[in-house]
């Protein structure tokens, strides 16, 4: 069973003939070779596969193709071309927030989802926003520090929409 | 052959329900996990799927005459972000799952799942939520406590869709919610406890108490709530044992991989005690 699915991916229109229940994480990684999105648990617990769907953070392992119709998906590959990414990337480096790196794409997109809504988050708000993203290396403090730093260094940038 | 339907509107969705046996798929945060296969493989379903999460008729939130009407396909995040909705209703939802799951998961899905550990359910029982059920031929309302009949069991018939949740609103001065789980985000509750109260220095005027994950369905006792009505603070302490034992008889928790019967029983009653003795402040 294959259906035509139309959606926007990182600003570009995509038409795919695909099984309507195929998971977005598999579409990204297997069909489109966008391997920045990682699969950890495959059941919505770990956030490694997080992407933005119509500007909202979602776990791509829980999104079947049929839900993508007319929607817009932003993955780390699209986000990395933005000014906001450059700030987050520099701050993650500065704070030492990346060790194995497997959770990082999800963490970066969770940070974007937070900062867009709340450009000056408190530490507790950052922890709540990252609650669905597991990291087994850093102990989280380094990631929280990076986001606090990014809020400051990217001041004025966060409430702007993403221009790809 | 399993089919996947993505209807254009609610009428079309009800037509499909009328003609074929389907699983209703809203946010999919539970269904995609229950039916998942190996990485790279398509989730496996043995019944056709009807997607309703995109239907705008099911995504509206309205308040009139102190009555809140939430479309069944409203996401948990949408409810949390609605400034008109009172905090006591948002309290359990804010602790559910994670931001990314709350962006997809719907209130109708949590009710339809009818899990004893469903995190919106104690709040919905405590507030006497009414559910609107629609089929091609009729629309009717049913109370949530009548709708859910057991773990994963409810009255929804194959031709019906849960379309709306109606919640009577009031000014509750006291509200208390505790979810006990092994991780702050994304865990299924070992137990949960939700309570609302109104009163003054002299007496409790109204109290509503619901326990989650300690019986086949959420436990609420009108009898025990009546025992609490009209009494004052010192009388609560005097009658605490009676009140606790009236609830103890109703709780019937199980041992499972998340927790034990003894732990669930003990902690639930302790949360009741904490609410009555420590949280109620007038």
TrEMBL record, chain A:
<dbReference type="InterPro" id="IPR006058">
    <property type="entry name" value="2Fe2S_fd_BS"/>
</dbReference>
<dbReference type="Pfam" id="PF01799">
    <property type="entry name" value="Fer2_2"/>
</dbReference>
<keyword id="KW-0560">Oxidoreductase</keyword>
<feature type="domain" description="2Fe-2S ferredoxin-type">
    <location>
        <begin position="3"/>
        <end position="79"/>
    </location>
</feature>
<keyword id="KW-0479">Metal-binding</keyword>
<keyword id="KW-0001">2Fe-2S</keyword>
<dbReference type="InterPro" id="IPR002888">
    <property type="entry name" value="2Fe-2S-bd"/>
</dbReference>
<dbReference type="InterPro" id="IPR036884">
    <property type="entry name" value="2Fe-2S-bd_dom_sf"/>
</dbReference>
<dbReference type="InterPro" id="IPR051452">
    <property type="entry name" value="Diverse_Oxidoreductases"/>
</dbReference>
<keyword id="KW-0408">Iron</keyword>
<keyword id="KW-0411">Iron-sulfur</keyword>
<dbReference type="Pfam" id="PF00111">
    <property type="entry name" value="Fer2"/>
</dbReference>
<dbReference type="InterPro" id="IPR001041">
    <property type="entry name" value="2Fe-2S_ferredoxin-type"/>
</dbReference>
<dbReference type="InterPro" id="IPR012675">
    <property type="entry name" value="Beta-grasp_dom_sf"/>
</dbReference>
<dbReference type="GO" id="GO:0051537">
    <property type="term" value="F:2 iron, 2 sulfur cluster binding"/>
</dbReference>
<dbReference type="GO" id="GO:0016491">
    <property type="term" value="F:oxidoreductase activity"/>
</dbReference>
<dbReference type="InterPro" id="IPR036010">
    <property type="entry name" value="2Fe-2S_ferredoxin-like_sf"/>
</dbReference>
<protein>
    <submittedName>
        <fullName>2Fe-2S iron-sulfur cluster binding domain</fullName>
    </submittedName>
</protein>
<dbReference type="GO" id="GO:0046872">
    <property type="term" value="F:metal ion binding"/>
</dbReference>
